[in-house]
Each structure stands twice: as structure tokens, then as C-alpha cells.
Amino acid sequence: MTETRPQPLPQTPLLQVQDLGIRFGGLHAVRDVTASLQPGRITAIIGPNGAGKSTFFNLISGFYQPTSGRITFRGEDITRLRTHEVVGRGIARTFQTTTIYQELSVLDNAMIGHRVRTRAGLLDALLRTGRERRDEEESRAGALRALDRVGLAGQATLPAGALNQEGKKRVGIAMALASDPHLLLDEPAAGMNPEETVNLMGLIRDLVSGGLSVALVEHKMSLVMGLADDILVLHHGQKIAQGTPAHISRDPAVVEAYLGSHAHGGQMGQEQAGRTQGTGVNHA
Length: 284
Description:
The structure is a single chain. By secondary structure, the protein is an alpha/beta fold. It folds into two domains: 11-90 and 181-278, 3-Layer(aba) Sandwich (Rossmann fold), CATH 3.40.50; 103-178, no CATH class. The chain has eleven helices and ten strands. The strands form two sheets. The protein has a six-stranded mixed beta sheet with strand order 6-7-8-3-9-10, with helices on both faces. The longest helix has 21 residues, at 130-150. Mean pLDDT is 83; it is low at 5-9 and 261-284. This is ABC transporter ATP-binding protein. Residues 264-284 are annotated as: Disordered.
């Protein structure tokens, strides 16, 4: 008699969007996107310039309110939540430009990221109440944990502006981690050299190994193919594909979109053109 083994239960998505869209006047920046992000994985959001990648992040993180569709995170509808409420639910975000306070210390920057988890108000701060002091201690401890995760514990007292571009990006990630997120939305920092970029990709892998889920926007296909577990492809604000790197690299709609973007100077098109000429990206 053949033993029947129980089948594993399907994994519940960490985040789901259903028919998500937003219009600015008559322009559909994102249109009818249905997709999901799985827990404990790196999902890359890719597409030609103007594909709607940053707008998609803005919708998930509460910066924009969608004109259609639904966003569910950990089983809760977060479609109409404001940004600070989304952060409180466990979604943190970094930005293309490194948004840190240059004159403050690395530690003070990270502490700002933890403040979303505190309860003290303006009056508490003015009167230095016990609640304010407890919150400050918690923020300091949470910030130090975040700095340790990004490798900056030894630079905690330095002004954030004294760090190089990679260091500033790590401060930005620490600010996001200090809010204790389940999902990190990450966009690349401008001005980093290839070595710095590779170092940060290694950090992303380490964070995911530690239990975090990550969605990132990245323009370098060689990095995407080597880093991402899943890829979501947007084009003209619509989803044209989602799957593993191996699946995406062979998808005709993706190849066509990237080659088409090359005619308009898109970065994705340039990457694809380089691959087809044998000078650029290795998709293995």
C-alpha cells in the first residue's frame, strides 16, 4: 500500500494587491495591477523608465491613495491607511535619494525611525515625562539594534553626513529597520559605485535571511537576476509578468517591453540591448 503524504499548505502572501490603480488627471500611472509578495523573499519590481514602479511603491506605502483596487497586508485591508499607519502595520520604505539628516548623528537618525513605535506626545516631550523618557530609551535600543544589523554600530556617534554614499544608504535602511517592519520597500541610492551597490545587495540578502521580506526597485538586470527570488514586471503602469528570474528572462512580453524601451533611452532597454549584443548582462 502506497503511503499518502500530506501536501504542504500553500503559503499565504504577505502582501496582495487586487486591480490596483491610480490616475493623475487622465493618465493611468498604475492600472489594474493584481499581484502578491511572498514572505521571506526578495521581490524585484522592474520595468522601463516610466513603468510605474515608484508609483506602485507610493501606493503600497500610503503616500498615494489609489483610485481603484485594494491592498491587503498580513490579511488586513490597508488600502485607505495613511503613511504613518502603514508604517505602524509593518511596512517601511527607503527612497532613491538618501533621506537622512546630515547634521545629526547616525544614532539620532536611526532613533527617528523608531519613533513610530512610541506613544509619547508633544506635551510629554516638553515636560520630559516618564513616558517620554521610557520612549527615548526604547528608541535608542531599537536604533542600536538596527545599526548593528546594517553594520554601522561602530559609527553611531558620527555625523551621518560624514559617511560615504553607501554608509548614508545604510543609515536610511537602519531608519526603516528601527520601525521593526515585516516588509522593507527599498529603492536604490543614486551615485553609488558598483562595489557599493554589490555590498548593499549583500546586506539585503542578510536581512532576508534574518526573517525580513524585501521588495525593491532595481535597474541593473544583472543584479536583479542574481538577487531576486521573484520578479514583478510593470510596463505603462500595468503588470505584464510575474515569476522567478528564470521565467522572467524568457518571457516574450518582457523582452519586447525592454527592447521597446531602448528606442526611448530606457535603462531597461539599454540593459537588454547590451545582453543581446553579448556585452552586458548575464541572466544565468
